[in-house]
Amino acid sequence: MGRLASIGVKAEDSEEVRLRKAALTLLVALIITLSVVWVGIYAVLGLYLSAAIPFTYQVLAVASILALSRGWSFERFSAFHLTLWLILPLLLQVSLGGFVASSGVILWSLIAALGALIFVPHPIRWFAIYAVAVVVSGVAEPFLDPAPMPTVVNVSFFVLNIGAVSGAIYFVLRYFMRGLAREQERSERLLLNILPASTAKRLRAGEEPIADRYQEVAVLFADVVDFTSISEQLTPDEVVGLLDDLFTEFDTLADRWGLEKIKTIGDAYMAVGGLPEPRGDAPEAAAGMALEMLEAAARVRESLQLRIGIDLGPVAAGVIGRRKFAYDLWGDAVNTASRMESHGVPGRIQVTERVQRRLRDRYDFEQRGPIEVKGKGTMAPYLLVARPGGGERVDGSARRAAAEPR
Q: How many Å apart are CA 286 and CA 280, to the nearest integer?
């Protein structure tokens, strides 16, 4: 079934287009299979003209699937089958002598009317044609001679027509809706990779603009030391694989420490604590994650070193953009945390004085001394070197020890 569903699918097709193509191809195959019953019974009863009509559909349908596999456009394929589903049941009903004699075989045209909602633009046109076909068959009814049909066969065909049409419509709708649900779930996961869950919910609800102010947020920036030189020694696949492994580790740490990943730019990673839900231990969580990020980098590649900067303060946060939106932060704490990273020491975590004041009773620090920071003037940052409670020191000379499992 998988190979059949892939007929006519192109590499550039979106997931929704692939789903539409697969649903129609499988529906056509189902009707080809079901038509065997009608062809066989009509032939046994000696109604050869009536048997020829569903047989003609089988031949044309198989030919159309082969044409689709050889490049026939899906638009023509779908219009072709909708046309057959509208015309052939009407012809079959006329050949059998009307509604009762044909056991309501015109019901098969309902597949075209409802299928048009999924497979083609302007579905109302196809429903209008279906309505006209039903009216025409009703007007023609008094002028038709009913075919000799045993009562038991007539009743059986009523059951078959109603059941088969209902089943075919149910099949295609269920297949399509399940596919849409999978695509929606995938889109939801992608959305949650861009936005915090509560922000994504607000965006789906149509709220705009989305902008909030938070009074105390811990902002963490990290990047790989000398990544340009490292990447020049690797193939593009290896560069992507390295960053994927590294950022996957960071994402896991962000989940564990309760920080919100904001974005990655090249080899830089940004995460924050204290939004969208405020928390009193945001700087502690950011510090704990930063220490484990050094360990994670060493696990991914022993020679990798990070520069990490952390600051604490009020920020504004919101969603910008329309087609390609992004969640971002603004404020002095954001700029200062970025400067702490860019002016930092390889293999170390550099924090501002306000972060050190909040954490000095729980973490060990080294004072780096006054340094000139671009856009900020002279600052006296600190280097975070140990875990809460006096854990093992983490600095540039203890990278290997830091990478060992704890």
A: 12
> Does pLDDT of 4 surpass 50?
yes
Alpha helices in 70-150 (DSSP H): 74-96, 109-119, 123-140
Residues in the chain: 406
Q: With 0-12 CB in 10 A as exposed, 13-18 as middle and 19+ as buried, what is 345?
A: middle
pLDDT digit string, tens, across residues 54-98: 999 999 999 999 999 998 999 999 999 999 999 999 999 999 999
Give CB contacts under 8 A, 24+ apart, made by 8-16: 8/68, 8/69, 8/72, 8/74, 8/77, 15/179, 15/183, 15/186, 16/180, 16/183
Residue appearing with tokens 């203890």:
398
Degrees to nearest 5, angle at CA 173 with 167 and 177:
145
Token look-up 């950011």 returns 286
How many Å apart are CA 108 and CA 26, to the nearest integer? 16
pLDDT at 401: 38
What mean pLDDT value characterizes the chain? Answer: 86
The answer to whether residue 219 scores a pLDDT higher than 90 is yes
